[in-house]
Amino acid sequence: MSDMITVKIDGKLCTAPAGTTILECARMNGISIPTLCYLKGLNEIGACRMCLVEVKGARGFVAACVYPIEPPRKDRVTGEEVMMEVRTNTPALRKARKTTLELILSAHDKKCLTCVRSGNCELQKLSNDYGLDEIRFEGSNLKFEKEVSSAHMVRDNNKCILCRRCVAACKKNQEVAVISPAGRGFNTRSTCAFDRARADVPCASCGQCIVVCPTGALYEKDQTEQVWAALNDPTKHVVVGTAPSVRATLGECFGDPIGTNVQGKMVTALRNLGFDGVFDVDTAADVTIMEEGTEFIHRLQEGGPFPLITSCSPGWVKFCEYYYPEFTQNLSSAKSPQGMFGALMKSYYAEKKGIDPKDIVVVTIMPCTAKKFE
Q1: Is there a contact between 370 and 315 (Cβ–Cβ < 8 Å)?
Q2: d(CA 84, CA 81)
Q3: Per residue in 158-187, pLDDT tens?
Q4: With 50 as the cut, is the pLDDT of residue 1 above it?
Q5: Which of 37-41, 140-144, 276-280, 362-366 has the lowest mean pLDDT?
Q6: Which residues are within 8 A (CB) of 262 and not within 5 positions of it... i.e. 6 or more apart?
């Protein structure tokens, strides 16, 4: 096919469509090139310089994430067609990448043992892969207070490597754009406009910035200790509700194939942890559907407003309120399934069990950080 290009990477013939970068071509052909800032289709900016490779004939190293593969070209001397040749793991490249890592770590809070991402940190993994056991570069560092104003997450700029992944995910995926780099040079930092607190900007609390962060600079707030305290309080009746997706997500966390349903194991584990009741929030979702259906009939009789838009996702509701306030009248007034679940546990369930609602502690396990502010 004329739109396919063949190049040689580390001596291996690799074919990919025209316009493909060296990085993607390598990955399509089973060759690994390290990255830190790269997110396919979102953040292809060559900022971290970890993906540097050697291209025969080029003046110096090139960033594989932005450098496209090229078709064969005629040699000026022999006139023969010469295929593009790329090398990804030479001693010079390994030295350059190691130096880059040292420079990143020189301005990084290296308290790895107490970091929430320890063992699951891309920067930590690369440091281990390249044998970094000491940092040659030390000096002045900026010190940041942790930003904890929002209900769902923490921002610790002491661990930010300025990869701009969060900026790209917030702007291009979510179309919210409340995160951006500010300052210049050594004073550059990832923040919100005018260094405002996260709680004071129109953040939808979706948590996608946390998902793409390669280090512990962004992480969700953790209520685990509060749950343990409730479970160990003999005066409390503790119930837990899981979102439908959690039964599959948990399987992936433990290495099961994508989509594996581990509901039985999950319920058993929750009971063994000490929960007095284990529920599926999709039961509350059924109640939400009935409530929204009733509301739809009422609007049909009253002549609108239409369309009626679901309010099941607090992240979506917040996004609508911030960015499309003209549509808030179209949002259902019904609580989300999580909200319905909590209300049912404190009313119907409490009555059936003969328990004072104030002695019932409701825990939910949800896939989205927006549930935390709800």
Answers
A1: yes
A2: 10
A3: 999 999 999 999 999 999 999 999 999 989
A4: no
A5: 140-144
A6: 247, 248, 250, 251, 254, 256
Strand 52-55 and strand 62-63: pairing? Answer: antiparallel
CB 214 within 8 A of CB 165: yes
Interatomic CA distance for residues 256 and 253, integer angstroms = 7
* pLDDT level of residue 2 (50, 70, 90 thresholds): low
Tens digits of per-residue pLDDT, 60-105?
999 999 999 999 988 777 878 899 999 999 999 999 999 999 999 9
Instruction: Give phi and psi for 180, each to the nearest 5.
Output: -160, 160
- Within this chain, do residues 373 and 227 fall inside the same structural domain, yes or no? yes
CB atoms within 10 A of CB 241: 25
Residue 321 has pLDDT above 70, yes or no: yes
Domain that holds residue 234: 223-374
- For the chain, how big is the Rg over CA atoms in Å? 26
Give the Cβ contact number of residue 101 at 10 Å.
24
29: left (phi over 0), alpha (psi -120 to 50) or beta: alpha
Whether residue 257 is preceded by a cis peptide bond, meaning omega within 30 degrees of 0, is no
Q: How many domains does the chain have?
A: 3
Which has the minimum average pLDDT: 78-82, 165-169, 242-246, 272-276?
Answer: 78-82
Give the separation between CA 300 and CA 296, rounded to whole angstroms: 6
Dmax over Cα atoms in the chain, in whole Å? 92
| Secondary structure (3-state) at 302 | helix
Q: What percent of the chain has pLDDT over 70?
A: 99
Residue 94 lies in a domain: no
Report whether 118 contacts 175 (CB < 8 A).
no
Residues 370, 207: Cα–Cα separation, whole Å: 7
CATH number for the domain harbouring residue 22: 3.10.20.740
